[in-house]
Amino acid sequence: MQNKEFVPIDEFSDMWDVLTQEERMYLRENTKIHHFKKNQIIYCEGEEPSHLICLIKGKVKIYKEGTGGRNQIVMMIKPKESFAYRAFLAEERYMTNAATVEATSAYFVPLKVIYEMICSNNKLAFTFIKILSKELGKAHNRTVNLTQKHIRGRLAEAIVNLVEHYGFDDDGVTINICLSREDLANISNMTTANAIRTLSSFVSEGMLSVKGRHISVLDYEKLLKISKIG
Amino acid sequence: MQNKEFVPIDEFSDMWDVLTQEERMYLRENTKIHHFKKNQIIYCEGEEPSHLICLIKGKVKIYKEGTGGRNQIVMMIKPKESFAYRAFLAEERYMTNAATVEATSAYFVPLKVIYEMICSNNKLAFTFIKILSKELGKAHNRTVNLTQKHIRGRLAEAIVNLVEHYGFDDDGVTINICLSREDLANISNMTTANAIRTLSSFVSEGMLSVKGRHISVLDYEKLLKISKIG
DNA sequence: TTAAAATAATGTTTTAAAGCACAAAGTTAA
DNA sequence: TTAACTTTGTGCTTTAAAACATTATTTTAA
Q1: Which of A11, B40, B51, B188 lies 20 to 30 A from A124 at CA?
Q2: CB distance from A95 to chain B under 8 Å?
């Protein structure tokens, strides 16, 4: 069941540190690995949740389809993070879609295995409580940011969040994620044309430099300031 | 510690059904009751969370202060619901403010008591997991609704949500909550003037009738349709 | 290696909603 | 019972962002 290329799931992400040796084995036995190409859909709104997914490598966007084909990205996932479990825990169907933004490998754990372990291991239950509480706080923040800030503030904040989440490449300035202008727009709640325009003005103001989809941050302080003022 | 006017907290809200007899006693012994007048602030952004609050009677708004004095109401609380615990579970300070919208009584339970019980009672942990998961789903929905729908859709949706949450008075049409136009605007992400205007047009279109702050729903289907189309 | 498609870039027009200003009606307080 | 204040209601003006249109530039595929 385990792939020899990869370490076992319980050693990969520290969210499983709280498991007993027995539980770790149980988790390993029930974990499978799946691979996805770039821009592949992992799950869709309305489907029944079946697995917790823990990213090994690659990047994933979680988004909701809005009116008129405009999507809203509600969160971005990076390696070691898990997703696709919320709907199950709420006893709902998926309310979001998940798609890769680059080639991706991930552990798949049946949600009933997760459920059993949450029921028998308090510490794991608390791990989920904490993750969900933090996510809920972020979601409230995002709502206010996206509804009250102007275009420049929204894009600046989106870029700041990408920096904080994915960090920089070895050069120390290039953000370690490549997104289309459309995805950038869907994170910042604006049209693609406006994302392009606003990104260009950030470049001409000397805050960023852009090479295709690679964004480098030249003046982080200024970016932060714009993201706060709105 | 208990007030004779009110039933014990564990009998009042069914979220405590999962507690053992011993835990119930422990909960009761540590619960106090507080009373608030209309428009009183219960807690503020930045404060250290100390108590879980369970509403006995009255209504509470949870809101974030936005730019330029415009607040965003992120949720409304009704009797039997609990709040003020998210920040504690996420090990953060409050990110929101809470204020009464009418005279309110509430149970106050120290969060360390809640923490102890979550750690010792898996079922209670799961209760919180489920509540948080559902809230997170709602928050994602709200984000998309508030960012993508137009004014009429946003207000219609806000009113639909109020109906679903608070229900009707005995007459079967008047929504069982009275909010200022400003609060209505702060739920639907618009200016007060636009809330007033849009509400008036809903009235002149025969969907609603309004007497001061009392809103009656005359054509729920139409309201629902507008809330969905945007 | 050309064609087709997707993505990026820019200019122009339109519009939804904010901003502003002011009046009327209710409330609260002195 | 005035006065002061808050809330509600409207009209007018401005503006931020969407919508639309068109042209480059990449990327992908045939």
Answers
A1: B51
A2: yes
Q: Output the pTM of the full model.
A: 0.96
**Nearest residue of A to residue B72 by CA position?**
A144
For chain A, where do the domains classified as CATH 1.10.10.10 start and end?
149-229
Q: Rounded to the nearest 5°, which phi and psi values hold at B212?
A: 65, -120
CA–CA distance, A109 with A55 (Å, rounded to integer): 11
The distance of A74 to chain B (nearest Cα, Å) reads 7
In this complex, do A90 and B130 lie within 8 Å of one another by their Cβ atoms? yes
- Give the tokens for residue A174: 């290039």
Question: How many of the other CB atoms lie within 10 Å of CB of B177?
Answer: 20
- Chain B closest-CA separation from residue A216 CA (Å): 28
Q: How many CA atoms lie less than 13 Å away from A21 in the CB half-sphere?
A: 0
* pLDDT, tens digit (0-9, with 9 covering 90-100), for A30-81: 999 999 999 999 999 999 999 999 999 999 999 999 887 899 999 999 999 9
